[in-house]
From TrEMBL:
GO terms for biological process: NADP+ biosynthetic process. This is ATP-NAD kinase. One of its GO terms (molecular function) is NAD+ kinase activity. Keywords: Kinase, Transferase. PANTHER family: ACETOIN CATABOLISM PROTEIN X, ATP-NAD KINASE-RELATED. It comes from Methanoculleus formosensis. Transmembrane segments: none annotated. InterPro entries: AcoX-like, ATP-NAD_kinase_N, NAD/diacylglycerol_kinase_sf, NADK, Put_ATP-NAD_kin.
Amino acid sequence: MRTVGFLVNPIAGMGGAVGLSGTDGGVEEAVRRGAVPHAAVRAARTLSLLRDEDIAWCTCASPMGEDVLTGAGIDSYTVLYRPTVPTGAADTTAACRVFLAAGVDLIVFCGGDGTARDVFDAVGGEVPILGIPAGVKMYSAVFAVNPAAAADLVRRAGDIPCRDSEVMDVDEEAYRSGRLTARLYGYACVPFVPERIQGGKQVFEQQDEERAKDDIAAFITEIMLPETLYIIGAGSTTARVMERLGLAPTLLGVDAVVNAEIVASNADERTLLALLDEHPRAKIVVSPIGAQGFVLGRGNQQISPAVLRKAGLSNLIVVATPAKLAGTPLLYVDSGDAALDREVGDSMLVVSGYRMAQRKRVVHSE
């Protein structure tokens, strides 16, 4: 029987839908803006697929694990750590040290990049770890691509190889102000199966890359319709579209444009839904994260399932340069609504230049 240590960062990802670009140090502001916890829901999807497995679970008292296990129908477990309330990074590291001392075979955590760093601080490479994605960004390569993939990896742990995978340190304050500042924090041991574990983010800066962004921006602005709401997602390629219109983009946030004028900068989910009430015709322009391939569910949670359904999936426009697509073999959608993700289909066209597109395979959340 395998022994698995399990914990949840209950505040992970709360800042995403409300436009905070992260939750570390910003929980009160996230709650003020109407954010609700969702990490436990993401974790429960994984655990519900594992309740019949022969696993000895070790966990933390609520709200860092026990409640999620019981909610997923798992009633046999051992509570090894009782966190402070409200919980913090120190609870994650302390719990993981207790798991390590108990001799667990694997530590499964639900959170984002900050949680991954806290887990790594406690265990380094001494025991395999696996993340259930629930944060805003998740640039580290220790996360399963979605909750169902996490369950598959836990089920197969011990029978599949582990690899050294990047844990990234992302500056939260810089990220909230629109600057991506990241450095390699360390390498963790992670169970690995292709298409089940996400890659680390890559940044492409070649001269041809900049020319391709200009070509994409020229094409998108050329086909923009009047009296239509354009929701422009995060990233340097979509930012070039804004710049082509003579507008200042929110590089790591979501902007809304009508008739080449900004109607909302760094918009949250609530703002986007209100704008869609005012503007029934809408388009959403997003770009996948380099190498990871996530179109939905990473860094753009403001474009929520409710926003996508209201705008219509047929109005989703994906853009990416040829260099990014060459390093991104698959696209992923993990919006948080599995039924909606399936509606995306098995492939999508990606605008990759001026009147040019490539068709890429899509992997769904479930």
